[in-house]
Specification:
The structure holds two protein chains of two kinds. By secondary structure, chain A is α/β, with parallel strands linked by helices. Chain A has one domain: Thiamin diphosphate (ThDP)-binding fold, Pyr/PP domains (Rossmann fold). Chain A contains eleven helices and eight strands. In chain A, strand 7, helix 10 and strand 8 form a beta-alpha-beta unit. In chain A, helix 3 crosses helix 8 and helix 6 crosses helix 7. Chain B is an alpha/beta fold. Chain B folds into two domains: about 180 residues, Thiamin diphosphate (ThDP)-binding fold, Pyr/PP domains (Rossmann fold), CATH 3.40.50.970; about 110 residues, Rossmann fold, CATH 3.40.50. In chain B, the strands form three sheets. In chain B, strands 2, 3, 4, 5, 6, 7, 8 and 14 form an eight-stranded mixed beta sheet that branches. Chain B has a five-stranded mixed beta sheet with strand order 11-13-12-15-16, with helices on both faces. Chain B has a two-stranded antiparallel ribbon with strand order 1-9. In chain B, strand 12, helix 10 and strand 13 form a beta-alpha-beta unit. In chain B, helix 10 crosses helix 13. The chains are: A alpha/beta, B alpha/beta. The structure holds thiamine diphosphate and iron/sulfur cluster.
């Protein structure tokens, strides 16, 4: 008999301790968490060997609910904490969860450099196009013309494309999906978890409370519909040069991973090979 | 056999770190601290450790904390501008009780100030720079030898008390060269953090029943939560006063119950003194010369050198203030330690500052003048 879905999820949650969660009913963060756990389960990672690191924001609250080694850091700095942890314990699967403000505004520099180093982290950026936790202010990914509590006359700035930023900074794996396309999202997460280097999954998500209500999409359903209508799989889009947001695995290439390279540095140092060409 | 070496302060710091068991460094270059990074970029991988040059100082301390949670003894080094950028994560380390060592090689400031000149203007920042009430340990070396010793001590105290420890050096101490005899690695006392002896279900990383609960690193089968939010004994966020208050009391008590272990001063010629010099870092060297010059003039001057700045050595200063008529506090700032001395002396002795903040060291003659006033 086929087992119901929640059987997969429950062993990964700190159920007895921290529920109900802090997120608004219908928030996309829960869908991201569910997808991530199912992907982890499919890849077969051990809970003891997983660290989940987050920054500050609604997204940043995710680690408290999961039964891993969990670290809730400061706003924007999750990747930097994770970099130290990964160097100390290269054998661990370190998953970093960030919001769009966390990853692209205050933490934008860390994002660029962690990608450039290609350190082996699985990076989930929940892009809800707004600052959720602080109540709906503009974020670096808020679309031009959208409203926010700090842009009541309409946002005059250009939004940043997180996936293209990751690609430009050198990430060897970049994928984008939405909380509407859950099965697709899970598969991307699975691929990202299996990738050796810096693997980014950008997830378009609904903050119907912070973003939706100010932009005529006050319900989760309205926002999920928006995701369905305004995104298209990459292959199709390639053919028709669509104005829609591309979904899919956007980058997948091989690059040597940082902690593996550092092991080589240690070997060279111990062999006394200072300033000798590689 | 211990061998004599002619070392720069920065080298002594790096060697001290290695002797203490440091195996991780993350930092961002800044004068006058960059030598420490350069040396450790060579020496750490030789010892199987890891060095990473980060993109700024916020990420440097963040990586240090992450590595420490991964089980490595970890440090960073910086100077004023970078130390300012580290403040938020310094508070995180204090709140989450993650051992780490931050070396601040002070230079003249504020702002970019005078990067290549010495100062001691970060005394209050080291204590109060991050927001909110928090415990902290701050040490200050006055010689190359002390830079070595206090770096080891900084790691030992940070591991023992699960606290960030700031090593407040200055440009003079970091750049000068002195002859030092370093002990053999086996002779160095090295303290490692306590690890739990109970199974994971019994483990509370923030247990308020003891001053310093054990800390196990990530990946050892104890799956726990670490956050900068107020947290309960398991590490989970809490808004309950009955969980917040005991935590607050404990993190201060873990320092206050162990002042004898943490506070270190060195007294010289204080037996018969009626004037006391209280100083620290490079200024303590000037003070020592001034004391000798004054003694040659038959003035009864003694020296109290503070090796621990925070927690402030209140007991010592209290005792001294009851014994002498006058306390002179030479320091390369506008009187940050003098304020503390005045607070503790509470009018029992006259307190006088000797200050410079223009990037030059205080000359012994300047101190002698103040003594003779
Ligand atoms: C240094 C610092 N600045 C500002 C804040 C306040 N703050 C908390 S969360 C947040 C933004 C959250 O937006 P995002 O990162 O997109 O995450 P979301 O809440 O949408 O998941 C801000 C500005 C903070 N905690 N720390
Ligand atoms: S404010 Fe937005 S992002 Fe935060 S929990 Fe509510 S819906 Fe989710």
């Amino acid at each position: 008999m086929k087992q119901p879905m929640f059987h997969t999820i429950y062993p990964y949650l700190r159920a007895s301790k921290k529920f109900p969660h802090v997120w608004c009913p219908g928030c996309g963060n829960g869908i991201v968490l569910g997808s991530l756990i199912r992907a982890i389960d499919r890849v077969g990672l051990s809970k003891d060997n997983i660290a989940m690191v987050s920054g500050i924001g609604c997204s940043g609250r995710m680690p408290v609910y999961v039964d891993f080694n969990t670290l809730h850091t400061t706003h924007g700095r999750a990747l930097a904490f994770a970099t130290g942890l990964k160097l100390a314990r290269p054998e661990m699967n370190v998953i970093v969860v960030m919001g769009d403000g966390d990853a692209m505004a205050i933490g934008g520099n860390h994002f660029i450099h962690a990608a450039r180093r290609n350190i082996g982290l699985t990076v989930i950026v929940i892009n809800n196009m707004i600052y959720g936790m602080t109540g709906g202010q503009c974020s670096p990914t808020t679309p031009t013309g959208s409203f926010a509590t700090t842009a009541v006359y309409g946002n005059i700035e250009q939004p940043l494309d997180i996936s293209r930023m990751a690609e430009a900074a050198g990430a060897p794996f970049v994928a984008r999906s939405t909380v509407f396309h859950v099965f697709e999202l899970e598969k991307m997460m699975e691929k990202a978890l299996n990738k050796e280097g810096f693997a980014v999954v950008e997830v378009l998500s609904n903050c119907h409370v912070g973003y939706g209500r100010q932009n005529d999409m006050g319900s989760p359903v309205a926002m999920l519909n928006w995701m369905r209508e305004n995104t298209s799989p990459r292959s199709v889009q390639d053919g028709e040069s669509s104005a829609k947001i591309a979904r899919g695995v956007l980058v997948d290439k091989d690059l040597p991973e940082y902690t593996a390279l550092y092991d080589e540095v240690i070997k060279r140092a111990q062999a006394g090979a200072m300033n000798t060409p590689l | 056999m211990a061998k004599q070496r002619f070392l720069q302060g920065s080298e002594a710091c790096a060697e001290g770190a290695l002797a203490a068991g440091a195996r991780f460094y993350a930092g961002y270059p800044i004068t006058p601290s960059s030598e420490i990074a350069e040396i450790l970029s060579r020496r750490l991988p030789q010892a199987g450790g890891k060095f990473i040059q980060m993109e700024d100082e916020m990420s440097s301390l963040a990586a240090v904390i992450g590595a420490s949670l991964g089980g490595l003894k970890a440090m960073t080094a910086t100077s004023g501008p970078g130390f300012s950028l580290m403040q938020e994560n310094l508070g995180f380390a204090a709140a989450a009780e993650i051992p780490c060592v931050i070396v601040d090689v002070q230079r003249a400031g504020p702002s970019t100030g005078q990067p290549t000149s010495p100062a001691q203007g970060d005394v209050m920042q080291a204590r109060w720079g991050t927001h909110g009430d928090h415990p902290i340990i701050v040490l200050s070396p006055s010689s190359v030898r002390e830079f070595y010793e206090l770096t080891i001590r900084a790691f030992n105290l940070s591991e023992k008390y699960r606290s960030p420890v700031v090593l407040l050096a200055d440009e003079v101490v970091a750049h000068m060269r002195e002859k030092v005899t370093l002990p053999d690695p086996g002779e160095v006392e090295v303290i490692d953090r306590l690890e739990p002896t109970v199974p994971p279900e019994w483990y509370f990383p923030f247990d308020n029943a003891m001053d310093v609960p054990p800390l196990v690193s990530f990946g050892q089968g104890y799956r726990f939560h670490v956050t900068g939010l107020y947290h309960d004994r398991s590490g989970f966020p809490t808004m309950r006063q009955d969980e917040i208050n005991p935590w607050f009391e404990r993190v201060f008590a873990k320092i206050e119950h162990h002042l004898n272990d943490i506070v270190e001063v060195q007294e010289e010629m204080m037996e018969d003194a009626d004037i006391a010099l209280i100083s620290f870092g490079a200024s303590a060297r000037s003070a020592q010369s001034a004391m000798r010059l004054a003694r040659a003039k038959n003035l009864k001057v003694g020296l109290v050198k503070l090796k621990t700045l925070w927690p402030f050595p209140e007991e010592v200063v209290d005792r001294v203030s009851r014994k002498v008529g006058r306390i002179v506090v030479p320091e390369m700032n506008r009187g940050q330690i003098r304020l503390e001395v005045e607070r503790v002396a509470a009018g029992r002795a006259r307190v006088l500052g000797v200050n410079r903040y223009d990037g030059e060291m205080i000359a012994p003659a300047q101190i002698v003048n103040a003594i003779e006033e």
